Amino acid sequence: MANTQQGFETRAERVAEDERRIQDGIEAKEARSFQSDGDQPPAQTGAREYPVPPMPGKHLEKPGREADLTLQPMWDAPFYKGSGKLEGKVALITGADSGIGRAVAVLFAREGCDVAIGYLEESDDALTTKAAIEKEGRRAILLPGDVSEASYAEAAVKRTVDELGGLDILVNNAAFQEHAASIEDITYEHFDRTLKTNLYGYFNMAKAAAPHLKPGSAIINTGSVTGLEGSKELLDYSMTKGGIHAFTRSLAGSLIKKGVRVNAVAPGPVWTPLNPADRQGKDLEQFGKQTPMGRPAQPEEIAPAFVFLASPQTSSYITGEILPIIGGY
């Protein structure tokens, strides 16, 4: 019996030694990893190389003009080849003058879609988007105005239908964002503007568009990672983006009986005028560095998701979904 017990103890000691050897191996690798993590360059996983932090720290005056950025966002997607996924369709895109909206408009046009360009007042940017759409061989019209006004939404939809011959796709993308260190720093004017643009605006546009949408049509809302995870310095903005996600799922259930799909794309940090018109200095320079990819997305990296969700060829069985594009987990 004693020999048997001694055998157990001997084997147990060997197992313990094996465990310590495994532990030592992992810890040595981790030590090397920790030492080199700071030297790891941001991930480049696309068809071309994208800018990495530090980003230019120049602050923009709201609403933010893309033409004023020292580092221009990459939106033209030269490696993206159209294949007629939206052939003969008409889209109305709010906030299409710049950023994600412009990139979506260009890819929609490349897929065969005419585009109505909704924007606030950034006429130079909007004209650039219009020229890019026309370069793709499609028609474009300009719709300046404030989405928080129901009368604007109705007029924008009417002009789209009258001048482009119908409406098949609505992209709700216009947004207002301004950070604040504390809830005490958010004035009621600030809070009201965020909700009016980001929630009322989406509701107004969807309500105006719904009567014109036919089976096979789609609504795509731009959400945000802040609507999934929250953001302590974007309290009101995060609140609206979470509301947009809920609105997406609810509206999807409401409109499916008409054969209309409703989905949302929830981006992480993207290099567009929205953030330089909010942040400045070191905060802006480090924009996107906190993601696993170590950099912000460029608009052309987000836009293909909108094509996917807009086309009945690629997403006919998808509605009520929130698609995060946040640079990893």
Would you spell out the secondary-structure blueprint of this structure?
Layout: H1 2-37, E1 90-93, H2 99-110, E2 114-119, H3 123-135, E3 140-144, H4 150-164, E4 169-172, H5 188-209, E5 218-222, H6 226-229, H7 235-255, E6 261-267, H8 281-285, H9 299-310, E7 322-325
Order of adjacent strands in the largest pleated sheet: 3-2-1-4-5-6-7
Number of beta strands? 7
Oligomeric grouping of the chains: single chain
Which percent band covers the strand fraction? Answer: 5-15%
For the record, the CATH architecture stands as 3-Layer(aba) Sandwich
H/I helix tally: 9
Kindly describe this structure.
The protein is an alpha/beta fold. The chain has a single domain, classed as NAD(P)-binding Rossmann-like Domain (Rossmann fold), CATH 3.40.50. The chain contains 9 helices and 7 strands. The protein has helices at residues 2-37, 99-110, 123-135, 150-164, 188-209, 226-229, 235-255, 281-285, 299-310; strands at residues 90-93, 114-119, 140-144, 169-172, 218-222, 261-267, 322-325. Strands 3-2-1-4-5-6-7 form a 7-stranded parallel sheet, sandwiched between helices. Helix 2 links the parallel strand 1 and strand 2. The longest helix has 36 residues, at 2-37. It starts with a helix and ends with a strand. The model has no long low-confidence stretch (mean pLDDT 92).
Structure summarized in a few sentences:
The protein has nine helices and seven strands; from the N terminus they run αβαβαβαβαβααβααβ. It has 329 residues and is an alpha/beta fold. It has a seven-stranded parallel sheet with strand order 3-2-1-4-5-6-7, with helices on both faces.
